[in-house]
Amino acid sequence: MTTADQRRLLGAFVRAHRERLRPEGPPGRRRTPGLRREELAARAGISVTWCTWIEQGRDVKASPQALARLARALMLSRAERAYLFELSDARDPDGPLADDVADAPRAIVAAVEAVTHPAYGLDRLWNACAWNGAASHLFRGWLSENCQRNLLVFVFLDPAARDLIPNWKDRARRLLAEFRGDYGHSFTDPRARALVERLRQDSVLFRQAWDAQSVLEREGGARSFNHPDDGLLHFTQHSFSPSERPDHKLVILTPA
Description:
Blueprint: H1 4-20, H2 37-44, H3 48-55, H4 64-73, H5 78-88, H6 106-114, E1 119-122, E2 128-131, H7 133-138, H8 151-157, H9 159-164, H10 168-186, H11 190-202, H12 204-211, E3 221-227, E4 231-240, E5 249-255
Helix pairs in contact: 2-3, 2-4, 4-5, 10-12, 11-12
């Protein structure tokens, strides 16, 4: 549900961008700059009344599809479109899916390559998209060659994870609660639903934890691992999201 402040911001945003657009046809004498509300409504396929009310900051209910048409009619950039949907408290039906951008964000690749400690990147579905040699050495069963690169699949289904992670059940439950926070942004993606369904079928712990409906923010903090060669290792985990792809994560583990 949107607040009064959100609605005021949205109304001012829509009006400002409407007034920036050039009307079609030869220029004439106009009382208002840019497009009239009637012209914007015609472009977007929405009613003039709805267009007026949204600019006035009224509590208007609009479908994501109507907002998408409005965004196209206003010729918004990707950042402007995201702002429109954020103020509307709605999900963009044309938002990017998990692998619409195949390569890892450049910021994550640069950071992973720049540090000597274990570092890796995750995409929206928590597939590893970049990692360095230190991470490959630490997570031998996950970031090694020919291994399953999804973090949840590794933690819940790979026996190596149970040996690597002390207090495996507690850590696995917390990891899933953190993933659910991201899942709320991507549950319309059939790949996200398929991942959850696979894990529900193949892991009793995952199914129980998923049905518990716990949600947590992904946080850093103390992390320990029982490495098969190096013994018990202690790290502090730091997590970041790059500005150009906030649906991705960068994770760096510094020795504790």
